[in-house]
Write a structure and sequence with these properties.
- By secondary structure, the protein is an all-alpha fold.
- It contains 5 helices and no strands.
- Helix 1 runs antiparallel to helix 2 and helix 1 packs parallel to helix 3.
- The longest helix has 34 residues.
- The chain is elongated.
- The N and C termini lie far apart (62 Å).
């Protein structure tokens, strides 16, 4: 079986290429052999953010920060995930308002 390092490298290459789903899979496999690696969790969180799945990112980042609270990149990524989630919520609220406004016009 491939080692966790191979999956980590594959994940990093996939992230660099914008292939977030592949990165997510690779980092998940790497975490199978190194579940307490805060760096890997941060990288997987970045893949979640790239896919527009901030909830998954926040779960990984909260755990990563509990594992190592000295990594500033984790806090930066967590802020990005919160912003992504806020944008989603604002977009849904705007869509709902627009739909209601159209219904009122008809």
């Amino acid at each position: 079986w491939p080692s966790g390092a191979i999956f980590r490298d594959d994940g990093s290459q996939a992230l660099a290429a914008g292939k977030y789903r592949d990165a997510l899979t690779a980092f998940g496999a790497a975490l199978g052999s190194r579940p307490d690696d805060a760096h890997l969790r941060g990288k997987r969180a970045l893949a979640y953010i790239g896919l527009g799945i901030p909830t998954g990112a926040l779960q990984d980042l909260d755990r990563a920060i509990r594992q190592d609270d000295t990594l500033p990149d984790l806090y930066h990524l967590r802020a990005m995930a919160h912003l992504t989630r806020a944008e989603e919520q604002e977009g849904a609220a705007a869509e709902d308002s627009f739909t209601r406004a159209l219904a009122d016009v008809e």
